[in-house]
Automatic annotation (TrEMBL):
It is an enzyme of class 2 (transferase). This is alanine--glyoxylate transaminase. Pfam families: Aminotran_3. One of its GO terms (biological process) is photorespiration. Belongs to the class-III pyridoxal-phosphate-dependent aminotransferase family. The keyword Secreted does not apply. InterPro entries: Aminotrans_3, Aminotrans_3_PPA_site, PyrdxlP-dep_Trfase, PyrdxlP-dep_Trfase_major, PyrdxlP-dep_Trfase_small. It comes from Brassica napus. One of its GO terms (molecular function) is pyridoxal phosphate binding. Keywords: Photorespiration, Pyridoxal phosphate. Its EC number is 2.6.1.44. It catalyses: glyoxylate + L-alanine = glycine + pyruvate. PANTHER family: ALANINE--GLYOXYLATE AMINOTRANSFERASE 2-LIKE, PTHR45688.
Amino acid sequence: MPLLFRKPLNIVDGKMQYLFDESGRRYLDAFAGIAVVNCGHCHPDVVEPVINQIKRLQHPTVMYLNHAIADFSEALASKLPGDLKVVFFTNSGTEANELALMMAKLYTGCQDIVSIRNGYHGNAAGTMGATGHSLWKFNVVQTGTHHALNPDPYRGVFGSDGEKYARDVQDLIQYGTTGHIAGFICEAIQGVGGMVELAPGYMSAAYDIVKKAGGLFIADEVQSGFARTGNFWGFEAHNVVPDIVTMAKGIGNGFPLGAVVTTPEIAGVLTRRCYFNTFGGNAVATTAGLAVLNVIEKEKLQENASMVGSYLKGKLSQLKEKHEIIGDVRGRGLMLGIELVSDRKLKTPATAETLHIMDQMKELGVLVGKGGYFGNVFRITPPLCFTKEDADYLLWLSYACYFTFEQPKMIDEPTSRCFSIILFS
């Protein structure tokens, strides 16, 4: 697994939006374990019920009834619209997406899947096929997936015209399949692909096309789910109700847990054989899952993600107007991306600058991620307890680090005050 920094970081402790290395140095975490720790590191209202559950019962097997599993299933289903009421638990997002793709094929009797270029859905055989990103695809057999044009408002051929991109889905179905497909899978915001928010109107137009071809619409909410975007689910911003929703990452605040939620009719396909997942839905992980839902509601983390995210995106957009290196600012809530370019007109990826700024920010105590095919997009996905003060600190620090690109150095206090004045004036 590639490391994020030139000097690897050894993290040993965490508390809410902060991480600590082996020397006790504190870092402001703006990555949250890749959009995982939505409630904050070691949140006491997640940790305590998990410890109590471990003391009582760790793994009974899902072949027995258990209140922890049933209570979380019921609470999770209540967060989804329509007839999305049947929950299958897994251990990861890859497993969840694999199961969803299999269910779509079984339900429709078709084998063809349509996904989007630049999307990421996992690293097993089926999900790797659905992934449209060569950096994450090994040389193994991957058949039956058709990759549609990426509706990327910044780099895409049709700009922000979502309906034009959706026509490519129609063309793929019409000319690359029998005219009928098993399903369509997409992220509302492409996380690994560089925080790309789908062009307006795309998802609803693609939904109509997929349904006419007899396919199921699968919403991959592995990164965008659980209040991260300011909506509870990313798809809610697009006025569609999926047939299947997959989720992981933020679902357990760091515990290995994923889920597939679908309708009773679609879920019925798994009764044709024996479907079983040994650890999926174990009592400890589902206890963590229920605790996450409670914390999100109690602490109004969805509202905070919307408020702080809008504030941060607005400030970043102001910086974009001043500095040519910022090609694009995008995303929603606390799932934001900043794409750096060395030439705005040509949109030349500023990969070296991105790595430098990340390293400098780490040295000064702030952690961010990176993504996109060229590795030139900052991924800002902090815990949802992130405050406006945290956002301000991240802003001036990234601004300051950019100005050290030619001569990297630690920034002293007078210099930091100077940057703060420039940034917030």
